[in-house]
Amino acid sequence: MATETPLPYAVDSSVDYKGFSNSGGWKCAFLIIGVEVAERSAYFGISGNLITYLTGPLGQSTVTAAENLNLWSGTAWLLPLLGAFVADSFLGRYRTIIVAAFIYILGLSLLTLSAVLPSVRAYDCQSADTIQLCSPDPSLILFFVALYLVAFGQGGFRPCVQAFGADQFDGQDPEERKSRSSFFNWWNFGMNAGVIVILPFLNYIQDNLNWGFGFGIPCVVMAVSLVIFLLGTKMYRYSIRREEEHPFLRIGRVLVKAIRNWRISPAVFFKEDASCIVSLQNSEQFEFLNKALLEINGSEDSWMACTPREVEEAKAVLRLVPIWTSCLIFATVGSQVGTFFTKQARTMNRSISERLEFPAASIQLSIPLAIVVLVPIYDRVFVPVARRLTGEHSGITMLQRIGTGLFLSVLAMVVAALVEMKRLKTAEEHGLVDMPNVTIPMSGWWLIPQLVLLGAADVFTIIGLQEFFYDQVPSELKSVGLALFLSVVGVGNFLSGFLISIIDKTTGKDGGDSWFANNLNRAHLDYFYCILAVLSVVQLVAFLYFSKSYIYKRGSIV
């Protein structure tokens, strides 16, 4: 599917806090995984049932709530680009994690406060004869400020803590390189196991007891996460930045120089570089960047001079763009879990016994449960067998792993559309179309297959993207690499919000019911899921096309 470029990225040395190199390894990695388990439990404890809070206590419509949730979620998944830039350029990963954790805890504290403050409702502004103008609801303002503080906090925390965990393994040591590949599997195993434990507990408290407690517990969990992280300070392996120009400047200079020289004859040649000999074969990709190597009459400033290694480094970053782009619909599909899948579940029979039913948001547990079951099978059964057959360190290449998950997401959307068709037909057969508050006699368990398929897709695509973007960026940009993965999810959420807004306005004009009507029995989520299935097929074809010509970085776990 792809080949390997001979570009020899230099590797940062890693030491502990005293300057010795015998640190890191699985002991530190498992401690960092524990930190992430706590953080993800706090995050999903908020986001997992947020659609219920928006449409319930805050009284928003289904469309408005879905748009707000997608906007916030998209922002939360894009902010890691900023956090990673700060970490890789200024503070370092360790310090960025600590600063981001305090912002995170502040946001969760204010979110809890907003849930316990009394709200200003419309009836509070009315008297017997007049309707007074109300000032904006302070608790609502505080809620959204707190929500976006949480987004900022996780934006700095998420990419840095995962990159810091992967830093505990030496990518140049054959055994540790295998361990690093396995780390991404167990990272996701632990993260999802934590969500399985805490999410039903929090959903029950939020739905049946008190939203203040429901938001306060994640705040306490996040504080515990910070304490756990600080306990390992003396054991961690820290990367030492090389004394050379920042990669952003190197890549930027290559782009500027190539643009300045774009009118020059297409003849390609290279300057001598003792540290790197670039083959003609690998320089054929993104040929226009080769012009950054040209010097006109020896008049070029020394600062603007580019080496073959720097040109190939810029090409390596550009090669990530098509892969990034061809995974966006996958994230759009995943964003439906916390919005429409949950709203569907609220209309269905969720009884476990005569007196007990599971919260609608708890259907989301099917995804982490599938991941927890499949990750050990993948890591301990599939990878060793595939490794013997293919000779690859990780069993199959990273791009093959990602592509497999994209295919599974297509199947998930097809199943989702079929299940929704059955739900609508059941509502019609029992005369419940205009009775949205009456439970449809169709089990909520019908939603499980599509969620399990999405969980299996995550085992392949999500974990594959994490490893891919960490592995394929220059060594000084590991946090940025993982932020690029997270930005896939962020942009996917924005795309979901955009599609919902456009379709809602188009299908709901002239006073008719839109595909996303508040009464889901008159909505057409099945049509929306069919559109996502078609877009997912187009995405898969594009991914296969781009991955076929992708060139891996030397020393990577292809």
Automatic annotation (TrEMBL):
<feature type="transmembrane region" description="Helical">
    <location>
        <begin position="140"/>
        <end position="157"/>
    </location>
</feature>
<dbReference type="GO" id="GO:0071916">
    <property type="term" value="F:dipeptide transmembrane transporter activity"/>
</dbReference>
<dbReference type="InterPro" id="IPR044739">
    <property type="entry name" value="NRT1/PTR"/>
</dbReference>
<keyword id="KW-0813">Transport</keyword>
<dbReference type="GO" id="GO:0042937">
    <property type="term" value="F:tripeptide transmembrane transporter activity"/>
</dbReference>
<comment type="similarity">
    <text>Belongs to the major facilitator superfamily. Proton-dependent oligopeptide transporter (POT/PTR) (TC 2.A.17) family.</text>
</comment>
<keyword id="KW-0472">Membrane</keyword>
<dbReference type="InterPro" id="IPR018456">
    <property type="entry name" value="PTR2_symporter_CS"/>
</dbReference>
<dbReference type="InterPro" id="IPR000109">
    <property type="entry name" value="POT_fam"/>
</dbReference>
<dbReference type="InterPro" id="IPR036259">
    <property type="entry name" value="MFS_trans_sf"/>
</dbReference>
<feature type="transmembrane region" description="Helical">
    <location>
        <begin position="445"/>
        <end position="470"/>
    </location>
</feature>
<dbReference type="GO" id="GO:0009705">
    <property type="term" value="C:plant-type vacuole membrane"/>
</dbReference>
<feature type="transmembrane region" description="Helical">
    <location>
        <begin position="358"/>
        <end position="378"/>
    </location>
</feature>
<keyword id="KW-0812">Transmembrane</keyword>
<feature type="transmembrane region" description="Helical">
    <location>
        <begin position="98"/>
        <end position="120"/>
    </location>
</feature>
<keyword id="KW-1133">Transmembrane helix</keyword>
<feature type="transmembrane region" description="Helical">
    <location>
        <begin position="399"/>
        <end position="419"/>
    </location>
</feature>
<feature type="transmembrane region" description="Helical">
    <location>
        <begin position="482"/>
        <end position="503"/>
    </location>
</feature>
<dbReference type="Pfam" id="PF00854">
    <property type="entry name" value="PTR2"/>
</dbReference>
<dbReference type="GO" id="GO:0080054">
    <property type="term" value="F:low-affinity nitrate transmembrane transporter activity"/>
</dbReference>
<feature type="transmembrane region" description="Helical">
    <location>
        <begin position="523"/>
        <end position="546"/>
    </location>
</feature>
<feature type="transmembrane region" description="Helical">
    <location>
        <begin position="186"/>
        <end position="205"/>
    </location>
</feature>
<feature type="transmembrane region" description="Helical">
    <location>
        <begin position="211"/>
        <end position="232"/>
    </location>
</feature>
<protein>
    <recommendedName>
        <fullName>Protein NRT1/ PTR FAMILY 5.10-like</fullName>
    </recommendedName>
</protein>
<keyword id="KW-0597">Phosphoprotein</keyword>
<feature type="transmembrane region" description="Helical">
    <location>
        <begin position="71"/>
        <end position="91"/>
    </location>
</feature>
